[in-house]
Specification:
The complex is a heterodimer of chains A (337) and B (41). Chain A has 337 residues and is α/β, with parallel strands linked by helices. In chain A, 32% of the residues lie in helices and 15% in strands. Chain A is built from 11 helices and 9 strands. The radius of gyration of chain A is 19 Å and the shape is globular. Chain A starts with a strand and ends in a 20-residue tail after the last helix. The longest helix of chain B is centred in the first third of the chain and has 19 residues. Chain B is rod-shaped, with a radius of gyration of 15 Å. By secondary structure, chain B is mostly helical. Classes of the chains: A alpha/beta (337), B mainly alpha (41). At the A-B interface, strand 1, strand 2, strand 6 and helix 9 of A face helix 1 and helix 2 of B.
């Protein structure tokens, strides 16, 4: 059993039927990784994890990953090197046939997005998306595939998240989680004080849904200051993954430290060994690991477990090491959004 | 030491440094449910 763990988020295509308002794909170039390149990347993911003595967790996503003409071949190959195989996708192409193929491919979980209740969700995504998503969740639960529901939280929808969480668990989701919207610049539209209150409310309410079948959520590094005790120490134990134990690969083979951090492009994957090189030796990764540069975190007892969201810090401050705009421990004064 | 061995040795040293600082073990610790910092978990 490998001693460590490593996470890959792989966007195999940017083809998508949705045009979600918060999507970080700004140019839908209809790019998709070829099967030959995909096989090379997967062999490199496997090699990278072997070198790091790490178990791989792989999320295959897009765009809508089910639009990729070689999706089944890719998933079949991926399953050979990881049991922790997830698809982060849309509901539109979840026909009975495709659900059967997902199950046969050994997909461990399928993640849907719900960004609010019906009118809010459909306004962010497209009309009818909410009903299609609910139908998709029901179908996959019935088929025995673990369903994760993820919500992108911002000032326009965070008030609805309690209802979204309840709905997700009522539908049979194994997990509901959330992440803050990372805009092009500025903040996600929630003050630090409001967000702190939101995290506490979610934490308390989620307890009532916790059972053997559900996974405890966190969804955000800042949640750690709500659910954990301060643990001052050097280094990191959990929290923001930037520079830590994850890489993201785009359809054009661009490798990023974090998909949400728009300045975290490390280079293009070209050959075997590149992923390990990017992770261990890329100058940006070395910079990201200098966590003592993070403004406001050094004296915080939660630093090793949190460090806020560096992607949000970057778009808000123009500096990866700037303050997280929703951290109530740093931003003690009420903010005007 | 040939080039391949040198590269392997450099990788081992870099990995040991990361392990010492906790970076590489972070995702394992995240099994409690803390977000990986990305979509998907």
């Amino acid at each position: 059993m490998p001693a460590n763990s490593f996470y890959f988020q792989w966007h195999i295509t940017d083809v998508c039927g949705n045009r979600c308002k918060h999507c970080y794909i700004t140019e839908f170039n209809k790019q998709q990784v070829s099967l030959a390149t995909a096989e090379g990347i997967m062999a490199d993911m496997k090699g990278c994890c072997e070198a790091l003595d790490a178990e791989a967790t792989l999320s295959v996503t897009g765009g809508d990953p089910l639009t990729h003409p070689e999706i089944w071949a890719i998933l079949k190959e991926a399953r050979k090197f990881t049991k922790k195989l997830a698809v982060l996708g849309n509901p539109e192409l979840l026909s009975a046939e495709n659900i059967g193929k997902l199950k046969n491919a050994g997909v461990d979980k399928y993640q849907f997005s719900l960004d609010g209740m019906e009118s809010t969700h459909d306004a962010i995504r497209r009309p009818g998306s909410f009903k299609r998503t609910l139908a998709g969740i029901r179908s996959l639960v019935q088929a025995g595939i673990h369903v994760v529901v993820n919500s992108t939280v911002s000032g326009i929808n965070y008030h609805e998240m309690v209802d979204v969480m309840k709905l997700s668990y009522d539908l049979g989701a194994s997990k509901w989680s959330f992440a803050r919207w990372v805009p092009e610049s500025g903040t996600c539209g929630i003050s630090a004080q409001e967000y702190s209150k939101f995290l506490k409310e979610i934490f308390e309410l989620q307890k009532s849904f916790k059972s053997d079948g559900t996974t405890f959520l966190a969804g955000d590094s800042l949640m750690n200051s709500v659910i954990l005790e301060p643990a001052p120490c050097d280094g990191v134990t959990t929290g923001c993954a930037l520079g830590s134990s994850a890489l993201c690969v785009l359809p054009d083979n661009t490798v990023m430290a974090c998909r949400r951090h728009k300045d975290s492009m490390l280079g293009k994957w070209k050959k075997s060994g590149d992923l390990l090189d990017f992770f261990l030796f890329n100058p940006k990764m070395e910079v990201y690991r200098q966590t003592d540069k993070i403004v406001g975190c050094n004296k915080c007892g939660f630093k090793s477990q949190c460090r806020g969201c560096r992607a949000l810090a970057y778009v808000n401050n123009g500096d990866t090491f700037g303050t997280d705009p929703q951290c109530v421990l740093i931003n003690k004064q009420p903010q005007k959004e | 030491m040939d080039q391949a061995e040198e590269k392997k040795s450099d990788a081992q040293k870099a990995m040991e440094k990361l392990l010492k600082e906790g970076f590489l073990t972070r995702a394992k610790a995240a099994k409690c449910g803390i977000c990986t910092g990305m979509d998907g978990d």
